[in-house]
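If your schedule permits, I should be very grateful for your opinion on a structural question. The matter concerns a single protein, recorded as an amino acid sequence and a row of backbone structure tokens. Could you please explain, in whatever detail you think fit, how the structure tokens follow from the sequence? I set the record out below, with my sincere thanks for your time.

——
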Amino acid sequence: NPVTDEVRVVLPPNTTSSTPILFDATGRRVAIAFERKDAGYRALVGALPAGPYVLQVITPDGVMTARFVKQ
């Protein structure tokens, strides 16, 4: 799951609204732009420092969480 340039998130079908949030390994929120793309989001992470990150997407149905490592 290592990434270098971008992260993509695919949302469940019929998701009406959502908010993506990125956190670093210390739990601090990372300011990064998310682009709405088809059925999800895309974020360019090439400028972020290497290390582990947690991506959360808040939807009306709950919170989806994914972890990734930026190389």
User: Anything to note?
Assistant: The chain has a mean pLDDT of 94. The CA atoms of residues 15 and 57 lie 11 Å apart.
